[in-house]
Amino acid sequence: MGYRHDRDDIVRAGIEVVLAEGLAALSFGKVAKTLGISDRMVVYYFPSKDALTTSIVAAMGAQLQELLEGAFPSKASPDALMRSAWPILASSKVDALMAVYFEIVGLASAKKEPFVGLSAALVEAWVAWISELIDVEAPAERRRVAWSIVARIDGLLMVRQVCGARAANDAARALGIID
Predict the structure, then answer these.
(1) 85-143: pLDDT as tens digits
(2) Is 70 exposed, middle or buried (0-12, 13-18, 19+ CB in 10 A)?
(3) Which is nearest to 98 in space by CA: 59, 150, 61, 55?
(4) CA angle 103, 119, 81 (to 5 degrees)
């Protein structure tokens, strides 16, 4: 009896495809080929490409959060959070994840589904997570500050993706995030 792949195996294979080729290249066939199975097996677990895409993106978001969790102090100033996050986010290990994130944002900007809702959910989850780490008493103020952190980090990451690491690090230096 052959090995039967489960939902998690399919998501991992999907992540492999997306990181190697981009989200636009994702297909049932490519995921199936990565695992050496029929594309019908992928469809069994994910009846639509939107369902597959959403599961893959959620898993990638969890990977990124896991990378950052160890770097963030439990409660910190916004500047300390930025200084903790930047060395991790500005690494070649994270570049492929960020490329996919910006691909999602670009597709959302073009009003393509499921990316409109997906990108909004990703950013909202990022803001909610960061707001719990900020050393600010008032919840509304924590949320406002979290939005500003996400805006700065996303801006720096966009510069890194489009113009390269040197330009992003120069901008991070100008913002006081790195020395």
Answers:
(1) 899 999 988 999 999 999 999 999 999 988 999 999 999 999 999 999 998 889 999 99
(2) exposed
(3) 61
(4) 95
Exposed / middle / buried, residue 45 (Cβ in 10 Å: 0-12, 13-18, 19+):
middle
Two tokens, residue 140: 């509304």
Q: What are the pLDDT digits (tens) for 57-101?
A: 999 988 888 888 877 777 888 888 899 889 999 998 899 999 999
Residue 160's Cβ-side half-sphere holds a number of Cα atoms within 13 Å equal to: 25
The residue with tokens 């297909």 is: 27
The reply to whether omega before 114 is within 30° of 0 (cis) is yes
Q: Helical H runs in the chain?
A: 7-21, 28-35, 39-45, 49-69, 78-89, 92-109, 115-131, 139-163, 165-174
